[in-house]
Amino acid sequence: MLLKPYPMRRPFLVFLFVTFMSSFAIAQELLTWDDFADVNFEPVYSEKYEIHFLTPKFGEKIKSYEGKAISIKGYFLDISGSGEVFLVSQNPMASCFFCGAAGPETIVEVGFKEIPPFKTDQIVTVTGVLEINVDDVDHCNYILNEATGLLVN
């Protein structure tokens, strides 16, 4: 005796397949700090500030993530102290780029959708759309826009 296929099975399987595949399309890529190190710097004079700044020359790998949703794990820093300027850093505040022990490729400026409750030096994973900044010296070289964060510890 042959059984007729259940009529709802095919649409349900199609729905599952589409749902599964779309999750890959919107999934973010978890980058490491080594990925952000795909950059070299050259000093370039800024007439606006009358000083030389390190101007980035990004590698092809990191440039391939521009405009895409990515995640990075690091130390949360509120460098303004007032909840206005947030960074994720490869290093804690005492040895971050601004405090001396690292380069500009070890920080990512973060534009959160909502101001997070994190405290400086907590380890977080931040997800957002990567912007690569070549020439605006008032911002970091890497910026995550529309970001959300998750406390790791």
What is the mean pLDDT?
Answer: 85
Shape: globular
Radius of gyration: 21 Å
* Helix-strand makeup class: alpha+beta
The H-and-E topology, N to C, reads as HEHEEHEEEEE
Please indicate the percent range of residues in DSSP E strands (runs of 2 or more): 35-45%
Number of helices: 3
> Ranges with pLDDT <50 over ≥5 residues?
11-26
| Lateral strand order in the biggest sheet | 4-5-6-8-7
For the record, give the distance between the C-alpha atoms at the N and C termini, rounded to a whole number: 60 Å
Q: How much helix is in the residues?
A: 10-25%
What about the largest sheet? 5 strands, mixed, barrel
Q: Tell me how many strands there are.
A: 8
Descriptive overview:
The chain is of the alpha+beta class and 153 residues long. The protein is built from three helices and eight strands. The strands form two sheets. Strands 4-5-6-8-7 form a five-stranded mixed barrel. Strand 4 (69-78) and strand 5 (86-89) form a beta hairpin. The termini are far apart.
Features:
153 residues, alpha+beta, 5-stranded mixed beta barrel, two-stranded antiparallel sheet, 8 strands, 38% strand, globular
List the helices and strands and how they pair.
Blueprint: H1 9-26, E1 29-30, H2 33-36, E2 39-46, E3 51-58, H3 60-63, E4 69-78, E5 86-89, E6 107-112, E7 123-132, E8 142-151
Parallel strand pairs: 1-4, 6-8
Antiparallel strand pairs: 2-3, 4-5, 4-7, 5-6, 7-8
Please sum up the structure shown:
17% of the residues lie in helices and 38% in strands. By secondary structure, the chain is of the alpha+beta class.
